[in-house]
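quick one before i forget lol
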Amino acid sequence: MRHLDLPLSSNLPVNSKHLRLRARKLVISAVSFVSAFSAYACDRATKSTTELGYDKRIAKWQHDSSVVDSLSRRINTDSVYFAYQRLLTEADLETAFEDIGCMRYRLRLRHGVEPATKALERMYDTLWLHADPKAVASADKRMEKILVVEGQDPDECNARGIVPAPDSINGTSLVDIGNRP
């Protein structure tokens, strides 16, 4: 047995067989680590290529949804809200529905279909909240008899001077963002 003076180590007897055994264990550990890491990396690479399409679609949908939501919160729906409120007391429901249809058409033309639809949906949540339930029930019965057509004529709706919203903004469709992937 011989003694080696190594810095930061004790002066214990060192056996060459012991060193070879430790070196072999170290090499085996290193090989195991490398093979485990490469298996993990291959597994991650395989997963990322199969999930990449979905990840991209969900990221695009989330981006588009937040853009449309932000735009919809800037749309003033007060005139449509008050027009719907007038339905509770209006005698001529057909004219009132035509007015509402034109207001909705102008909102969609000016702001885009998706943002306007989201803004109107938010408005509907509070539309009859403070109204008399009997008046709402009565108006509902009268409204059931009227056919509402969504396709509006720009001339009838006084929409000729409105600058239409673009179909998309930086790749985000204002016409249809689709369903969540």
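fyi The longest helix spans residues 16-72.
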